[in-house]
Design brief:
By secondary structure, this protein is an alpha/beta fold. It is built from 14 helices and eleven strands. It has a four-stranded parallel sheet, sandwiched between helices. A four-stranded parallel sheet has the order 9-8-10-11, with helices on both faces. Helix 2 links the parallel strand 1 and strand 2. This is High-affinity zinc uptake system protein ZnuA.
Length: 359
Amino acid sequence: MSRRFSCAAAALAVSVSPVMADVPKVVTDIAPIHSLVSQVMGDLGAPSLLMEQNASPHDYALRPSDARNLQQADAVFWVGSELTPWLDESIGKLASKAVSVELIETQDSLTLEFREGALFEHHVHGDGEGQVDHDHEKHDHDELAQDDHHEHADHHDHHDHDDHDGHAQDDHDDHEHHNDDESSDGHDHSGVDPHAWLDPQNAITWLGVISQTLSDLDPENAATYAQNAVSSQADLADLITDLQNQLEGERDMKFVVFHDAYHYFEARFGLSAMGAISLSDATPPSPKRIVELRNHIKEAGIDCVMSEPQFNMGLVDTVLEGTSAFKGVIDPLGRNIAVGAAFYGDLIQGVADSFDVCR
């Protein structure tokens, strides 16, 4: 646990004396969002967490206790249907009276589109200074790493894409033969990449949204929510600065990730993955995709291939056969980090540290 966020979490408990009131019952989807809500709620209460940390959000099945928590909820904070399409239906059935906040849909959230192909063919990687040019948009990573986030936020129409988990299952055979040369495994993964919590600037934005939502539900404690949010936003701003300095020497690293979950983190800190073993929804890769990646790792001199604890690590070993690349581990959901207010800062720090040791 990072010292900064340990101290911040402790400070929340004494920042403002809570007013005795009916504090909203809050449900969150994944541990990073649970952490942000916990920071805003402070001593007033604790949100419920739906997903177990060792599970993949793309295909999670609710437990009976999860259903009960949703039925009792006054508010549900979740990333959005792009990440957990199953939760959209569950909220409609079980928590229809709760305030539902899809954080990725909120104003000023930075959204990026899916990258395509095993080698992100539609992305031209830059010269080691953190710049990547996209066919559909241009993001200067060094500019994204600055504080003028709102000037560069790219708000895509979230309704212009299909449910990406649905594409992992439906119409595979109908599309695959059209994409043999693109190594896309036959899936149309156009649309918004849901892993937006890995940009801490989004977390700063979401802290404000969470604070305002809880204040609307619980006006008596609005001052507490606001003060806690401001304190956490300041801590995250400091963390962004620290990680920009920490990762400055890693911008020329050539790496491949297990699945394309790190676009937001890369964009914020000037890194650039050269491919992914699996698709953004962690759909198992085709044999052709594995062969393509293995050849690319050899030819391009890839430094590192990142595995993830939630998925099949054996696939990484298969991809690495006959190459000299190092195998690292990176976890976008913080499987081994204690759930709570300090979780989010520790998660982002842990992702950064994974790049430091992946040489």
